Amino acid sequence: MITDPQIASASLPWRRTALFALFTVSGFAGLVYESIWSHYLKLFLGHAAYAQTLVLALFMGGMALGAWFASRRCGNWRNLLRGYAAVEAAIGIAALGFHSVFVAATEAAYDVVLPALAGGAAAPLFKWTLAAALILPQSILLGMTFPLMSAGLLRRHPERPGESLALLYFTNSLGAAIGVLASGFVMIEHLGLPGTIRAAGLINLALAAVVWPLARSPEGVPVAPPVAQPAAAAAAARPPHGASPQLLLVVAFLTGAASFVYEIGWIRMLSLVLGAATHSFELMLSAFILGLALGGLWVRRRIDRAGDPVRFLGVVQVAMGLAALATLPLYGATFDLMQLVVRGTAKTDAGYAIFLASSHAIALAVMLPATFFAGMTLPLITFTLLRMRHGERSIGAVYAANTFGSIAGVFAAAHLGLPLLGVKGTVTAGAALDAALGLYLLWRASSPAAGGARAARAATGVAAAAFAGGDARGHARPAQDGFRRLPARRALLGGRRRARLLSRRQDRLGQPAPVQRGALPAHERQVRRRDQPGLGPPHLR
To answer: Is the dihedral of CA 288, 290, 293, 297 positive or negative?
Structure first.
């Protein structure tokens, strides 16, 4: 009878592959929830921009709390995969009842609570609090899934921890990228809001039902438990020049912030290129997540062989900053590409499909290089902490730090970067942050004498490249990028149909779109031809 969990897992290699496939489905369901919750809360809060902001903050904040909780409390669980299955089941049950709970709660709010508050500051505060109560518990559960699956898999297959972590990031992100498109293009249209969220709940319940029997075999001991070690062993497990776990968690936080600074800047830029197409936001979000997935896939074969993962991470951070900076000159060429697509596409359903595919390709051309490197960062940071023998809790800690950093990046970009620096300045600031992190890590991983000189020379080159992009304050303010505030849209548009199209753009981006044809810059007039009758899905024509 086999009793060693490692021998048992080796005898059933298909189980490892099955877990990766199942985690792809988990990522699919998770992004369906993020998409569908914004639609629900838009109905309650009355403004899509408020709903999207709140859902993003609560979804990511809840996931960070869930990952942190898992890192602190679940290390002593004997069977983490069974815990993962239980969490998936809880998510599925909550999703099946979400629509009924939402309807009952919002009806009570409108019939009883809000009339009693009689306006004022208390009414919006109550609405936001109720909205948070509706989605925060499920978001916390979603945040627990990655640490539980990762640690459970590593206990059963500890032989290639770096590859396992990278593949888990890849599969989960790939599922999320597909989930964004499936929700926006197919599920909501054919199933409606209640049917979509119930379908996602059934997916979670199916995952729980499949993982539970797969987890019946015993797990190994916790990965690299943080027990006392001899001084020599502790020194051998520590990267050169004391790259502490605190430093790596700070890097996870800051690189998460920089990545979402890019996302906000790119979405603002590409909204002018892709225009008011119904699914522009889904296409951009899917391109962003797909880049993260491909980065995790590429690094999987290299992470375990990395002699110094801190140096590797430093190179990746610098490359990510430079790739993000390179999107600024590339951005100007995207208008010409979109003009060619619009002129060469027939105004039919098939032509609209080609237009959407071309829009996704343009979004990928802008986002993929930097997000490709971003997808390597979390596997590298987590693997480094595991190599330093900081145990399973490092998985959830890195995930939580990165997610909290992402929230900080969203608010910094939206409320500080865009108003003060403009779009180009915001992206440049994120690039400078990533490059600075990489240079510091390279300095820490090098000998002080040689590494300091190399870092200084590299810093000079990065700074020169950043300033060569032009004066961010003088050339990239939101008003000059075409994001102007205009009078009432109905009076300017002169038609109900175009008012609906503009409303869709405002709902997606939370920004009024310029509509006075004579006042628009030439490159934007080129891409607005897509709003002519005949181009778009049947329900918009």
So the answer is: negative
Share of the chain above pLDDT 90, in %: 40
Alpha-carbon distance of 113 to 134, in angstroms, equals 16
- What letter represents residue 226's amino acid? P
Buried b (16+ CB within 10 A) or exposed e, 53-64: bbbbebbbbbbb
- For 217-263, what is each residue's pLDDT tens digit? 766 656 654 443 444 344 444 444 457 888 999 999 999 999 999 98
Q: How far apart are CA 62 and CA 322, in angstroms?
A: 31
Q: Match 């880049």 to its residue by tokens.
A: 291
Q: What is the mean pLDDT of residues 522-534?
A: 37
Q: At what angle do helices 122-156 and 48-73 cross, to 10 degrees?
A: 40
Give yes or no for residue 169 having a pLDDT over 90.
yes
Integer Cα distance of 64 and 378 in angstroms: 14
Residue 318 CA to residue 303 CA, distance in Å, equals 17
| Residue of 353, 347, 335, 363 whose CA lies nearest to 527 | 335
Are 86 and 185 contacting, i.e. CB atoms less than 8 angstroms apart? no
Distance CA 432, CA 423 (A): 14
Torsion 318-322-323-327 (CA) sign: positive
Q: Which two tokens stand for residue 339?
A: 């003009």
Separation of CA 515 from chain center: 31
Q: How far is CA 533 from the centre of its chain?
A: 34
* Dist. CA 392–CA 225, nearest whole Å: 7
What pTM was computed for the model?
0.77
Helix-strand-coil percent breakdown of the chain, rounded to 5?
80, 0, 20
Cα four-point dihedral sign 411, 414, 416, 422: positive
**In the block, residue with structure tokens 């249209």:** 189
